[in-house]
Amino acid sequence: MAGNTPMKQKTMESNHRVVSFLATGLFVIVCGLVAFPLLAGLTASFRPATEIFGNGMSLNLKIGEWNLNNYKYLFTMFLNPHTSDTTAILDSQKYFMWYKNSLVLTLTTVVLTLLVCYFVAYGMTMYNTKLGNFLFFMVIATMSVPFEILMLPLFQEVTTLGIINRNMGVYLPRLCAASTIFFFRQYMTGLPKELLDAARVDGCTEYGISVKIMMPITKPAFASMAILCAMGSWNDVLWPMLVFRDTSKFTLQMGLNTLLTPYGNNYDLLIAGSMFGIIPILIIYLIFNRYLVAGMTSGAVKG
Q1: Of 78, 74, 75, which is closest to residue 86 (Cα–Cα)?
Q2: Alpha carbon of 249 to those of 26, 80, 162, 240: distances in Å?
Q3: How does pLDDT run across 247-297, given as a tens digit for each residue?
């Protein structure tokens, strides 16, 4: 029996290497599938429009034909929907106006959503109330309802409140995001409630406990949700299109959508504008990346 032990260990090590090799290969394939659209779009943003229409989106790297004309046109031109001249210069500030609107709206949405959802989850987790579990169940139940079903009631709500065509009409319905509340609650269930009792003994107020003690501990959860909330707000098109009426309030995604017209589709400008629009989300990810894994894995193991 003792002589079989080394043989079993070698067999287990061999199986482990095979599984690791297969898992690594699978991850490489998945990463390639995910990265292909991004890389294809990035290379297409430096290629002439005629080549994009002729060859389509590909990773054919003809670096000698690359140029910055698409970005130059993007920052200095905008297609006039009433003319077929795709080089008509109208307003060089429109793209940056859309960019600024998206930045302001995304920043406001992320900050307010994180604060509201944190305090809602804090109250559900740290205080034992009779309706706590029922309220949490109701929050979870809303996650199963598609947004398309909620669009009309939400639109009627913002219209009744008189906040149509205003930034508040976009971010107000998002403040109590069920997924964000759920994430905060699951994170805080792994934290010891003895911290609250110790803080109360020391004379700390309830506000001080939630802000000065619990909030710094939940920093990984804040970072994780900041990335997800920012991505959702930055890439949203449908709800802002329902709320905004004035073109001066258009977000970047709405503005880029106007490049697709019956008079011509400017895919070269659309691709360049989309690539440049990735920068804010990329910066947010790089800032909060070190907290992302900790926030996602915390609470999985309790002890």
Answers
A1: 78
A2: 44, 18, 16, 9
A3: 889 999 998 888 777 666 677 788 888 888 898 988 888 888 777 666 555
Domain ranges of the chain: 4-76, 94-297
Mean pLDDT computed over every residue of the chain: 81
Q: What dotted CATH number matches 94-297?
A: 1.10.3720.10
Could you give the CA distance from residue 164 to residue 244 in angstroms, rounded to a whole number?
7
Q: Which are the contacts of 77, defined by CB distance < 8 A and separation ≥ 6?
A: 87, 88, 89, 90, 92, 269
DSSP character string of 126-140 = HS--TTHHHHHHHHH
Model-level pTM?
Answer: 0.80
Cα 78 from chain centroid (whole Å): 27
Matching residue, tokens 């609650």? 185
148 pLDDT band, cuts 50/70/90, is: confident
Distances (CA, A) of 104 to 91, 101, 170, 263, 284: 21, 5, 12, 31, 14
In the Cβ-directed half-sphere of 36, how many Cα atoms lie within 13 Å? Answer: 9
Find out whether 140 and 178 touch, Cβ atoms under 8 Å.
Answer: yes
Mean pLDDT of 115-133: 85
Segment holding 261, helix H or strand E: strand 260-261
